[in-house]
Design goal:
By secondary structure, the chain is α+β, with helices and mostly antiparallel strands. Helix content is 28%, strand content 17%. The protein is built from 5 helices and 5 strands; from the N terminus they run E-H-H-H-E-E-E-H-E-H. It has a 5-stranded mixed beta sheet.
């Protein structure tokens, strides 16, 4: 998107690269794990994730998870947009945007945890955009990926920390999507 104009969203569809997927699975199968710490209980995660849990997760991602069946494209309306982040410069952002059909819907910016991805919003988008109770507030949900953590571009220069990322997300909400007011 290097030559794209600013603030002009383009629909995005995630495509799986077969070679990258094969290499990822191979790396997961070849991963080496440390021994479990013996002086910390099974329910005590104060020293980090349990090795046995990480092993199970790696095995699942390598051999149990059906990458082709993942419904990422079906579950999200995704876009890429090049924005000019004040104090930083140009950056292409990835985001999901789901509109509510309700006329009283409030724009909501949902920011993922770190490390994480926009997929964290998968289970909340539908209840937020189309609540089953008509008296419950509805939202237009915008879920950007933190630059470098998802389908968007990784920053090409240093300095894009939390404050500048927040400015970028504000540019997305106000200048790109036209939401002069929103909640987060």
């Amino acid at each position: 998107m290097a030559k794209e104009s600013f603030n002009a969203p383009k629909p995005y569809t995630l495509r799986l690269d077969d070679q990258l997927l094969d290499v990822t699975k191979q790396k997961l199968r070849l991963a080496r794990f440390p021994e479990e710490q013996t002086d910390v209980g099974d329910d005590d995660w104060s020293q980090g994730a349990k090795v046995k849990v990480v092993k199970r997760l790696a095995e699942y991602w390598a051999d149990g998870f059906d990458w082709r069946a993942a419904r990422i494209n079906a579950d999200f309306n995704q876009f890429l947009v090049k924005v000019n982040i004040p104090g930083y410069g140009p950056q292409t952002l990835h985001y999901a945007h789901q509109l509510s059909s309700r006329p009283d819907a409030i724009p909501l910016l949902f920011v993922q945890g770190w490390p994480g991805s926009f997929l964290e919003a998968r289970k909340i988008i539908e209840p937020l955009t189309n609540p089953s109770d008509p008296t419950t507030q509805a939202f237009h949900v915008v879920v950007p990926s933190i630059p470098g953590f998802g389908p968007g571009e990784a920053p090409t220069k240093s300095g894009l920390g939390p404050m500048l990322t927040a400015r970028g997300f504000n540019t997305l909400m106000v200048d790109v999507l036209g939401y002069n007011q929103y909640v987060t």
